[in-house]
Amino acid sequence: MAGSLEFIKSTTESGVSSFSITDCFSAKYDVYKVVADDIVTSTQAFLRLRFINSSGTIISTNDYDFADLFLKAETSFTQRIYKSQDDIFDFNLSDGSISGGAGNTIAEIYNPFDTSYTNLSWEASNIYSSNYGVGLKGVGVLKQSTSITGMHFLTNTGTVTSTIKVYGVK
Q1: What CATH number has the domain spanning 5-169?
Q2: Which of 19, 72, 93, 150 lies in the 20 to 30 Å Cα band around 45?
Q3: Cα–Cα distance between 60 and 67 in angstroms, integer?
Protein backbone atom coordinates (compact mmCIF):
# COMPACT_ATOMS: atom_id res chain seq x y z
CA MET A 1 0.00 0.00 0.00
CA ALA A 2 1.64 3.23 -1.17
CA GLY A 3 1.36 6.46 0.73
CA SER A 4 2.04 7.85 4.13
CA LEU A 5 -0.01 7.43 7.29
CA GLU A 6 -1.76 10.18 9.22
CA PHE A 7 -2.64 9.35 12.82
CA ILE A 8 -6.36 9.77 13.54
CA LYS A 9 -7.22 8.18 16.86
CA SER A 10 -6.32 5.51 19.40
CA THR A 11 -7.82 3.84 22.43
CA THR A 12 -6.40 1.57 25.11
CA GLU A 13 -8.82 -0.73 26.89
CA SER A 14 -8.15 -3.09 29.78
CA GLY A 15 -10.20 -6.04 31.06
CA VAL A 16 -13.39 -5.30 29.09
CA SER A 17 -15.68 -7.63 27.16
CA SER A 18 -16.32 -5.05 24.42
CA PHE A 19 -15.32 -1.53 23.39
CA SER A 20 -15.75 0.90 20.53
CA ILE A 21 -13.61 3.40 18.69
CA THR A 22 -15.93 5.99 17.16
CA ASP A 23 -15.63 8.85 14.68
CA CYS A 24 -12.44 7.44 13.19
CA PHE A 25 -13.62 7.16 9.55
CA SER A 26 -14.66 10.11 7.39
CA ALA A 27 -14.73 11.24 3.77
CA LYS A 28 -11.12 12.46 4.10
CA TYR A 29 -9.57 9.05 3.24
CA ASP A 30 -10.60 6.05 1.15
CA VAL A 31 -8.20 3.69 2.96
CA TYR A 32 -7.49 3.36 6.68
CA LYS A 33 -4.91 1.31 8.54
CA VAL A 34 -5.91 -0.17 11.88
CA VAL A 35 -3.21 -1.46 14.23
CA ALA A 36 -4.24 -3.57 17.22
CA ASP A 37 -1.29 -4.08 19.59
CA ASP A 38 -0.77 -6.37 22.55
CA ILE A 39 -4.15 -8.09 22.36
CA VAL A 40 -4.47 -10.18 25.51
CA THR A 41 -7.64 -12.03 26.46
CA SER A 42 -8.43 -13.52 29.84
CA THR A 43 -8.92 -16.93 28.23
CA GLN A 44 -8.52 -18.37 24.74
CA ALA A 45 -10.86 -16.14 22.77
CA PHE A 46 -11.50 -14.48 19.43
CA LEU A 47 -11.43 -10.71 19.17
CA ARG A 48 -14.43 -9.93 16.95
CA LEU A 49 -15.06 -6.83 14.82
CA ARG A 50 -18.31 -5.06 13.99
CA PHE A 51 -18.65 -1.72 12.24
CA ILE A 52 -20.56 1.31 13.53
CA ASN A 53 -22.67 3.30 11.07
CA SER A 54 -23.02 7.09 10.88
CA SER A 55 -26.12 6.91 13.12
CA GLY A 56 -23.97 5.37 15.86
CA THR A 57 -25.55 1.93 15.53
CA ILE A 58 -23.33 -1.14 15.90
CA ILE A 59 -24.04 -3.33 12.88
CA SER A 60 -24.77 -6.81 14.22
CA THR A 61 -26.93 -8.15 11.40
CA ASN A 62 -25.83 -11.11 9.26
CA ASP A 63 -24.24 -8.86 6.62
CA TYR A 64 -20.57 -9.77 7.01
CA ASP A 65 -18.89 -12.19 4.60
CA PHE A 66 -15.24 -13.13 5.04
CA ALA A 67 -12.63 -15.72 4.27
CA ASP A 68 -9.37 -16.42 6.01
CA LEU A 69 -6.35 -18.63 6.09
CA PHE A 70 -5.81 -20.08 9.57
CA LEU A 71 -2.05 -20.63 9.84
CA LYS A 72 -1.33 -22.91 12.78
CA ALA A 73 2.39 -23.54 13.13
CA GLU A 74 2.17 -27.18 14.23
CA THR A 75 -0.17 -28.48 11.51
CA SER A 76 -1.46 -27.79 8.02
CA PHE A 77 -3.15 -24.52 7.19
CA THR A 78 -6.93 -24.25 6.98
CA GLN A 79 -8.86 -22.12 4.50
CA ARG A 80 -12.19 -20.97 5.90
CA ILE A 81 -15.11 -19.17 4.22
CA TYR A 82 -18.00 -17.62 6.14
CA LYS A 83 -21.12 -15.97 4.74
CA SER A 84 -23.88 -13.99 6.41
CA GLN A 85 -22.16 -13.61 9.78
CA ASP A 86 -23.03 -11.04 12.45
CA ASP A 87 -19.35 -9.98 12.80
CA ILE A 88 -15.81 -10.69 11.61
CA PHE A 89 -15.24 -13.22 14.37
CA ASP A 90 -11.54 -13.87 13.97
CA PHE A 91 -9.98 -10.41 13.81
CA ASN A 92 -7.54 -11.96 16.28
CA LEU A 93 -7.25 -15.08 18.42
CA SER A 94 -5.47 -14.70 21.74
CA ASP A 95 -4.82 -16.96 24.70
CA GLY A 96 -4.12 -14.77 27.70
CA SER A 97 -3.72 -17.78 29.96
CA ILE A 98 -0.29 -18.30 28.36
CA SER A 99 2.68 -16.19 29.37
CA GLY A 100 3.47 -13.95 26.40
CA GLY A 101 0.13 -14.81 24.79
CA ALA A 102 -0.40 -11.37 23.28
CA GLY A 103 -1.57 -11.03 19.70
CA ASN A 104 -1.32 -8.28 17.12
CA THR A 105 -3.44 -7.42 14.06
CA ILE A 106 -2.90 -5.03 11.19
CA ALA A 107 -5.93 -4.30 9.02
CA GLU A 108 -6.76 -2.14 6.05
CA ILE A 109 -10.32 -0.80 5.83
CA TYR A 110 -11.40 0.31 2.34
CA ASN A 111 -14.11 2.91 1.63
CA PRO A 112 -15.80 2.87 5.04
CA PHE A 113 -17.44 6.26 4.62
CA ASP A 114 -18.69 5.48 1.08
CA THR A 115 -22.25 4.15 1.18
CA SER A 116 -21.67 1.61 -1.60
CA TYR A 117 -19.47 -0.94 0.24
CA THR A 118 -16.86 -1.46 2.95
CA ASN A 119 -14.09 -4.02 2.43
CA LEU A 120 -11.27 -5.02 4.73
CA SER A 121 -8.20 -7.20 4.86
CA TRP A 122 -6.20 -8.18 7.91
CA GLU A 123 -3.19 -10.10 9.13
CA ALA A 124 -2.82 -11.32 12.69
CA SER A 125 -0.24 -13.17 14.74
CA ASN A 126 -0.45 -14.58 18.23
CA ILE A 127 0.37 -17.41 20.59
CA TYR A 128 -2.34 -20.05 20.25
CA SER A 129 -1.14 -22.52 22.85
CA SER A 130 1.95 -23.10 24.94
CA ASN A 131 3.38 -25.14 22.05
CA TYR A 132 2.88 -23.03 18.94
CA GLY A 133 1.81 -19.76 17.37
CA VAL A 134 -0.84 -19.01 14.81
CA GLY A 135 -1.32 -16.48 12.05
CA LEU A 136 -4.47 -15.30 10.33
CA LYS A 137 -4.82 -13.67 6.92
CA GLY A 138 -8.29 -12.60 5.97
CA VAL A 139 -10.48 -10.56 3.65
CA GLY A 140 -14.05 -9.48 4.24
CA VAL A 141 -16.92 -7.26 3.23
CA LEU A 142 -19.83 -5.58 4.98
CA LYS A 143 -22.80 -6.04 2.65
CA GLN A 144 -24.70 -2.90 3.66
CA SER A 145 -25.11 0.38 1.83
CA THR A 146 -24.31 2.58 4.79
CA SER A 147 -21.64 5.02 5.83
CA ILE A 148 -19.26 3.60 8.46
CA THR A 149 -17.71 5.90 11.06
CA GLY A 150 -16.33 3.51 13.70
CA MET A 151 -15.55 0.02 14.93
CA HIS A 152 -16.81 -2.10 17.80
CA PHE A 153 -14.69 -4.93 19.22
CA LEU A 154 -15.92 -7.77 21.41
CA THR A 155 -14.76 -11.18 22.61
CA ASN A 156 -16.66 -14.43 22.35
CA THR A 157 -15.71 -15.17 25.97
CA GLY A 158 -13.79 -13.49 28.78
CA THR A 159 -12.25 -10.03 28.59
CA VAL A 160 -9.67 -8.27 26.44
CA THR A 161 -6.89 -5.74 26.90
CA SER A 162 -5.53 -3.98 23.83
CA THR A 163 -4.52 -0.74 22.15
CA ILE A 164 -6.16 0.12 18.83
CA LYS A 165 -4.72 2.84 16.58
CA VAL A 166 -6.35 4.18 13.43
CA TYR A 167 -4.47 5.94 10.61
CA GLY A 168 -5.64 7.49 7.36
CA VAL A 169 -3.62 6.50 4.28
CA LYS A 170 -2.64 9.50 2.14
Answers
A1: 2.60.120
A2: 150
A3: 18
